[in-house]
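Try this one yourself first.
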């Protein structure tokens, strides 16, 4: 399954690069083409121009759907439902997240305020270089007795349920309950991929999951 997912990822990347790269520019271009087609319909109301307008409309709606999906993942906003379409809102959220994740000022141990990005980077690197390898005298040592007490902990009546085998239905239920529209996991696949294609990959996914439980210490 791992190798199959790797092969699919390469093809998906190629598809994304060929069809959906620079999605914002493609949406703008699709709007221009639709406006042009609508203008031609107004001037010459023939069936061929109506069909051209319809094709432009379908293409624009598809690109807008892709753009909104991209912005939802990047902004990590989950509360809008499938009927809402507000790219301007998501653009705003993305910019806000980028602004929040940017360090604009840094105060040194001496109280000096740094605003230049190069000075901030240099100070941050120096701080962690000094931090690594030093001993924190405020931390308490873990004694052998403390470890023994931890080993005595048990789950009581829950331990039986924890050791029981996980069923296929339980695994599927967890996968299907995963939130949609979230950013992809480290493997590059969002939850929708496994949910939409469960009939094809569900058996292998379940088998792999059970093997991982057996190998767990």
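Now uncover the answer:
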């Amino acid at each position: 399954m791992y190798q199959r997912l790797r092969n699919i990822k390469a093809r998906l990347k190629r598809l994304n690069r060929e069809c959906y790269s620079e999605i914002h520019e493609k949406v703008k271009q699709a709007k221009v083409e639709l406006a042009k087609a609508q203008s031609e319909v107004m001037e010459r109301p023939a069936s061929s121009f109506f069909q051209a307008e319809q094709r432009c409309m379908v293409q624009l709606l598809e690109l807008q759907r892709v753009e909104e999906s991209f912005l939802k993942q990047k902004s990590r906003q989950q509360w809008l439902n499938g009927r809402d379409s507000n790219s301007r809102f998501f653009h705003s959220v993305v910019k806000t997240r980028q602004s929040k994740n940017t360090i604009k000022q840094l105060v040194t141990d001496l109280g000096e305020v740094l605003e230049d990005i190069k000075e901030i980077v240099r100070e941050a690197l120096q701080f962690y270089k000094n931090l690594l390898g030093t001993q924190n005298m405020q931390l308490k040592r873990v004694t052998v007795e403390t470890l023994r007490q931890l080993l005595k902990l048990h789950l009581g009546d829950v331990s039986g349920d924890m050791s029981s085998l996980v069923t296929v239905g339980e695994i599927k239920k967890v996968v299907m309950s995963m939130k949609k529209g979230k950013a992809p996991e480290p493997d590059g696949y969002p939850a929708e991929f496994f949910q939409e294609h469960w009939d094809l990959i569900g058996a292998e996914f379940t088998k792999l999951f059970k093997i991982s439980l057996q190998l767990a210490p």
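Discussion: The CA atoms of residues 105 and 115 lie 5 Å apart. Residues 77-83, 155-159 have pLDDT under 50 and may be disordered.
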